[in-house]
Design brief:
Elements (H helix, E strand, L loop, with lengths): L1 H29 L7 H5 L37 E3 L7 E3 L11
The structure holds iron/sulfur cluster.
C-alpha cells in the first residue's frame, strides 16, 4: 500500500511537470511571428534567412539575420526575440526580412 501511494505521488508530480512545460512551449509558439502573417508577408519575412528569395529581394546578403539586425530586441544568443516592427511578436534570430538594418 505504501509503495502504491509513493508511486501515485511520483506519477502525479511527473505529469504535472510535463503539463507545465507544455504550456510554456505553447505560449512561446503562440507569440512567434508566422511567415503567413500579412505584416510578415509585406516585408518578405522568413524564419530561416537562407530561404529568402534572392531574386525578389536582391538587397539580401548572406550573413544578414535578425540576430544582427539593429531592430532585433533579443540578445545575440536568443533563438527568438522581439523586433520593433512587429510589436509583441517574436522573430527568429536566424530569420530575415526586407526591413533589415545594421545601422
Ligand atoms: S526588421 Fe530586422 S529583426 Fe525585424 S524581422 Fe526584419 S530583419 Fe528581423
Amino acid at each position: 500500500m505504501q509503495t502504491s501511494r509513493r508511486h501515485f505521488l511520483m506519477l502525479t508530480v511527473g505529469v504535472s511537470s510535463s503539463l507545465m512545460l507544455s504550456r510554456v512551449a505553447l505560449a512561446d509558439t503562440a507569440n512567434t511571428l508566422s511567415e503567413a502573417d500579412p505584416k510578415a508577408q509585406a516585408v518578405g519575412y522568413k524564419e530561416d534567412a537562407s530561404k529568402v528569395d534572392k531574386a525578389k529581394f536582391p538587397d539580401y546578403a548572406a550573413g544578414q539575420t535578425c540576430a544582427n539586425c539593429s531592430l532585433f530586441q533579443g540578445k545575440s544568443t536568443d533563438a527568438y526575440g522581439g523586433c520593433t516592427l512587429f510589436g509583441d511578436k517574436q522573430v527568429a534570430a536566424r530569420g530575415w526580412c526586407s526591413s533589415y538594418s545594421n545601422m
